[in-house]
Amino acid sequence: MRSLSNIFWLGTKELRSFFSDWVLLGFVIYSFSLAVISQAQSNSQELYHASLGIVDEDHSELSRRITHAFLMPYFKQPVAIAPADVEPLMNAGKYTFIIDIPPNFQRDVLAGRQPGLQIDVDATAMVQAGLGSGYAEQIVNNEISTFLSKTEATPSSPVNLAVRIAFNPNVMTAWFTSVMGIISSVTMLAIVLAGAALVREREHGTMDHLLVMPLSPLEIAMSKIWANGLVIAAAVGLSLYLIVRLLLKIPIAGSIPLFMLGAILYLFFATAIGLFLGTVARSMPQLGLLYMLVAVPMNVLSGNATPLESMPRWLAIAMQVSPSTHFVSFAQAILYRGAGLGVVWPQFIAVAAIALLFLILSLLRFRSALSSASS
Questions:
Q1: Lowest-confidence pick of 75-84, 129-138, 244-253
Q2: Residue 154 within a domain
């Protein structure tokens, strides 16, 4: 009971120290609010309001059908332009797409001559150009097929392809990047806060005070782990409810409390890594460099941005020893697909086992570092 009391009161000291550090406090608030919003809204990977010009040199029923087939929100209302204005308007960046329908286009289509239809694309808008050109080709082909199917010469297709997209029907980038931004911030801030707490004790000279007190290294380490883990857990919960659900209006399919349970398990690992790095680093700049060497590859290769299936097989197998991989796996399963505990329990056990191993190693390193400091 005395050890638990020491851990609790030392943790409250950590909390007071954190809330008095305006830089770290602002960093946490920014990472789980403005950073999530900017990541969700600025990194769009879908076609939205692409500007479109139409050069209709045919003035037929088919050309009018093609013009009216480009609808919001993918494309803006098509604007009719003259053939001579195509090059100046494209050079000025007024339109991302310009479709040129040649003369006698409908007559050649009905005659089976397979006429060409030109689509000019401004590829400086890379994402819009890549997605929009495929959309435009599909729209034109669909309209031509529908038009031909109404004639006696061309029968309708015996097979209709129905595509159903699960979990993100509109393929909205923000639905993915917002939650993944929160998950990335969990690893980053848990390591930074735990490591900074130890470096701050050394820089302020309060580590000597702790060493002369009747405290064990386990009590000092666990107090820093639970205090910094509590800050991150509270920030994650508030970010999911206030930023993702209320502000960004992004639906969450699964149970947030179940995800928070897994996040707490993962925080034991992340804060333990932060303590380990804090025992190695002698200053905050050194801690930042160590973070880049350890946490950045762990985040990038965890399946956060790139699926493990897209990586080399040896790398995907090697990343199974990192709790961040299992954390991303069960986070996506719970928050995106609505998975329950019966689905994600293997990842929970993997995170807990690896976190316990790293926690023991970090405590041993922390104990040896305090022993050397006291001597």
A1: 129-138
A2: no
